[in-house]
Amino acid sequence: MQTYTRTTIALAALLVSLAPIAQATADFASSAPVASAAAPAAAKPALTPYPSIKADEFKETDVWGRIRTGYAIPDIDNSLVGNHVKWYSTRPDYLARVSTRASRYMFHVVQELEKRGMPTELALLPIIESAFNPQAYSSADAAGMWQFVPGTGRDYDLKQNMFKDERRGVLASTDAALTYLQKLYVMFGDWQLALAAYNWGEGNVQRAIKKNQALGKPTDFESLAAHMPAETRNYVPKLQAVKNIVNNPAHYGVSLPVIDNQPYFTVIDKTSDIDLAIAAQLAELSEDEFKALNPQFNRPVITGGERTKILLPKENAEKFHVNLAQWGQALSTWTTHKITGARESIATLASRFGTTPEVIRQANNIPARTVLKAGSTILVPRTSATINSDIAEHVIDNAVMAFEAERVASKRGKKKMTNAQKVKAKVASIKSRMSRSSAKSKAPKRR
């Protein structure tokens, strides 16, 4: 275990960045969308400065301890909190699994919260949202450890295309989530209401506030809970429960795995295409571990560009650079092809590009018993003509893929008869029956 220290200069810079949140959020508010139908500005409580940080607080060797020192959201204590404390504290295996996943991302999240002067218990929010699983996907189409739905993701500049979904990316989604939470805090002046709005939507919280204002009732989280759906009513109590356990694990009979107070990963800019499997090989990581740090990539090729970043543990990043310098082969084996018509079946494409239908289906996530519609863009193996060409930026941004159920070929059968043919056939059938009946009457009777 390494002790985490900061130089006097770094600490001074950090303290400057942790100016009262009123000033920090005022700058942000000038560029954020204006809240509509919110409580009157004069009624908002003053924004509270973030607690001052002492130099020795950064000597924590464990991220959990660092989170405790930055708690700043007022506590709530009710029966829901007690229920959720009991649920989490009696499931040590679950907490261990979540903590193991969180160990890759927690240092980064806490560091970003401190840079913005935000309460550090917000680093625990992905436990509630996704159990710190960046591949989590909900029935409401929310994705990633911060659970952005597609529309809100686009509002916060999270790219979502055929090749990647930044709602799952560690860096991009964390930045977007903290920016969104800051906006909500500016809007409501209260972290508990900001959290409720993160889960339920700001418009719903604003309407709940209006209802209580009209009735002359308080507008704090617990006073508004009656207007909220069960999920939102339990949302802040769940975070409070986890916060209580992290604050004093021994009191609840919980043992939290140590998460070292140092960066888990480093960032590598990648401006050219590279196969995900090759990137993992160069970094000497398993594909599963590589995907855990880089879950935003949807396809077996990582496209280049200004925003393309790969996350790797520090020692693996060093191996990546050494192995890359010695690679001497193509970094990507994939390019794109646009379907122009029904004649371009997956089987014919596989034959054309020297592969199998199964490989094309797997690379493009094409379900069995489906065919591609014209206009679809898919991944195919590179050929000698495209071996040195990266996938173009306009293709990355605009590529779409659509498919439909495979049509089952009709069985061979009799040709359809015309009405005249049907009458003729019926007459022939009657004549045949009459003939058989006449023959039967003339036949000798058997005794």
Automatic annotation (TrEMBL):
Domain of life assignment: Bacteria
Annotated signal peptide: 1-24
InterPro entries: LysM (IPR018392), LysM_dom_sf (IPR036779), Lysozyme-like_dom_sf (IPR023346), Transglyc_AS (IPR000189), Transglycosylase_SLT_dom_1 (IPR008258)
Chain intervals for the UniProt region annotation (Disordered): 412-447
Keyword Kinase applies: no
Keyword Signal found: yes
LysM domain sequence ranges: 335-380
Bias kind Low complexity: ranges: 428-441
Transmembrane segments: none
Keywords in alphabetical order: Signal
Gene3D superfamilies per record: 1.10.530.10, LysM domain (3.10.350.10)
Pfam families (alphabetical): LysM (PF01476), SLT (PF01464)
Family, per entry: Belongs to the transglycosylase Slt family.
Name recorded for this polypeptide: Transglycosylase SLT domain-containing protein
Biological source species: Massilia agrisoli
